[in-house]
Input
Amino acid sequence: MSRDGAPPRARLAVLLSGRGSNFLALQAAIERGDLPARIVLVVSDQAEAPGLKAARELGLRAVALPRRGEPSREAHESKLLSALAEADVEWVCLAGYMRLLSASFVARYPRRMVNIHPSLLPAFPGLHAQAQAVEHGVKVSGCTVHLVDAGVDSGPIIVQRAVPVYDSDSPSELANRILQQEHKAYPEALRRLLAQRWEIVGRRVVFAAEKNL
Ligand code: GRF
Output
């Protein structure tokens, strides 16, 4: 507890490569008081990412760490780890971060790294999940927030939200429908991780009753 009796606010970093709408949804949830957290760092591998610009406009600490120019993935990840450590980050939130992180990087934030993916995992991991769903002809798709492990979109699931897939859907129409749910699912998943007791049983994230916030 902090001195005013409020629960301490978790220190989040958001890693993104592009638009940043999920980052903004997290920030909005924090500002509404729905998420006991603080975004202490936004990092992008793309210097021109709109999400990075949006973070700066909000007055958040925002840094570009491009992979290009670094001699190796290890060198790039080591810079990223230094930036996270310097900002005293407790939770790493991947939000459209388009680089795969190594197992040794992931191991630095055990059960403290979260990702959002635009399909109902384990269906359609990897790139272009919405196009994969349209192509496959599924009738329902959605989004998944999960803990990050060393695999691709393979960690334990925290929250999923479903949407219908219509025969007339283009990948971008489906992507927009899913995105609306992503903006609810990501804050909800983080809130549950921060506000409830939970454990991992097998592949399952099992939540206990919600603590008072
Ligand atoms: C989202 O669809 C997310 O699920 C995926 O990348 C996209 C990022 O969008 N991992 P945004 O940058 O958060 O708007």
